[in-house]
Amino acid sequence: MGVRRPVLRVGDRVVFDGDEHVVVGLSGTSVRLRADSGAEQVVLAAHLMAAMDFTVLDAASLPAVEPFGLLDMLPADVVAAAQRWREHVVEVDTGLPPNPVPGARPREGYDPAVTSLAQRQRAKAAELGVSLRTIEAKRARYAAQGLWGLVDQRVTRSVEMTGQSDPRLVEVIEEMLDAETTQSTGTRSRLIRRVIKRVEEIHGPGVVPLPGRSAFYVLIDRLSVGRHTFGSAVTRRQLANRPDGMFTPTFAMRPGEQVQIDSTPIDVMVLAEDGVPVRADLTIAVDVATRSLCAGVLRPVGTKAVDASLLLAKMMVPEPMRPGWAAAMRMASSVLPHQRLLSIDARMREAAARPVIVPDQVVIDHGKVFVSEVFERACERLGISIQPARKGTPTDKAVVEATFTAIKTLFAQHVAGFKGANPTLRGRGVEAVWTIGELQDLFDEWVIYWQHRGHDALRDPAAPRRKLSPNEKYAALVAAAGYLPITLSGTDYLELLPVKWRQINDYGIRIDNRVYDSPELGRYRRQPSGLAVKRGLWEVHYDPYDLSRVFVRNHHDGGWITVAWTHLPMVAAPFADFTWRHARRLVAESGRDVTETEIARALDDLLTRAEHGPDTTSHKIAARTRAATSAHRKTTPESATEIEEPAAQRQPKSETAEVVAFGVFDADAEAERWI
What we know:
The protein is of the alpha+beta class and 675 residues long. It has 21 helices and 20 strands.
């Protein structure tokens, strides 16, 4: 056959750069083109042929490349039949079968020297017992498509999804499948019943032909592929919420360019110190450029807006090494630019290998934790712009969503007390083991290992089989972008805390029936702050998870004044805002006057009983208090002193209790005792 070879020759007309050209010269890898307007240009052949609109106008005779992938999927007997036809077609065209042996001679009736093409086609038709038209059609398909043109096309024919079903029935089924997205999961029989009623409602009874029961089931299964109609309702809604277009990846070229923040319940049953299991929320911040876990905070369910601002503070200060951590986890032992960071912050000397990232922009959802004045004030203070994600569009913060999945796979499922995402995945006898504070310590340590682990999203383009770790990516981007973070000081940390405005009285400062006092308040008592807009009140910052002290801004001389709670010695353990409110409510319900001393005694009694672990609501509150306080580590100015719990008052490690046998109840003896 006279098949043209796929080459570009002088004189060919091509389409390039939106215009038609004639190839007037070829020199090595350069092609000289002349447009119809007479303008000429020289382009590289590779650039010419890689152009999106490049076309050889006389390309009708160019052979098509065989679809080798489709040929590989066909059954062996189908391919063998096509190859036998290929031998016959090639013999008609050339007189010899494919790949003949040296010296082979054409068979009688197929020698091109003595027979015409028409004669050879008739001879082949007679030999195979087919019509001449069949031989001509096979030759034409082989010339255009190669071996694929000789394949029995009945084997490659696609199956019609709806078969012979009435289009009106198919339309109603698709409508009802869409309606199942937000409903509780049902069975196929329920859907069939709804479809029949809907068809009769629209077109009338008996108008639209309905398939048999088995065919109906098959039709529904085909149309519901990919919808998860009869599976998990959560998965069905998630699939329906995915955008129709392609997913656009989020790019960032330097650390902190975009940080995504989100909060979700962690799939681990957490044990309070009194043995009461509680749920916990995990709030994390993930840097898009490096996939670094900037910070993570565990809190009892019901995370406050202040927790988000505290998360910002935690991610912008170094993570200190803790007793028991391996030396390899030190920043000095990692690929991070330790010396550069140490030159600007001495705290980096004993820091763990977790980078300090100052965000330019944070992406948040519309949760009440983030959409609040507290969080917005914190971001404004730090010069961080806030980008809210679109409602119902988790793909806007896909990086942090994927990180939660990784945390579940790489951390949560390996922790004792892992309960799975829902009750259907929960094993038998799953019990809570870790407190929130202990789990926070475990998570903080695991984050350092995360920073050393290769990440699928951080593959080297030049060596795609190698995955960079978040720390390696951070070190590379720091060198490329000239990034040098300035970490938060203790004073900056205080700026992120919530504010109350109070008067400094003779007895000190009163906040929620708690009195705070310090000798440093001496000359400011009964004096206005000088802020007319606040009627002379003083700015007091407090930590909701540690109410043992407050911090007063000195509006006269500058700086901060640390003021301790006057009744702190009466309390044998840390406490938080929700614990204080609960203790005050207990006193109020008892009928006594709600005084400072009474509240302190009730709070001390609450925490003392919690040490022994009775299963009451009061001790659940106490457990949340200790867990939240132990998980929270703040950075305060040098003037702020740490108040530690005395060793004698600390909770001892649990030991096996002595079993005491019950005696026989004696009613007479009991009556005598009460008399």
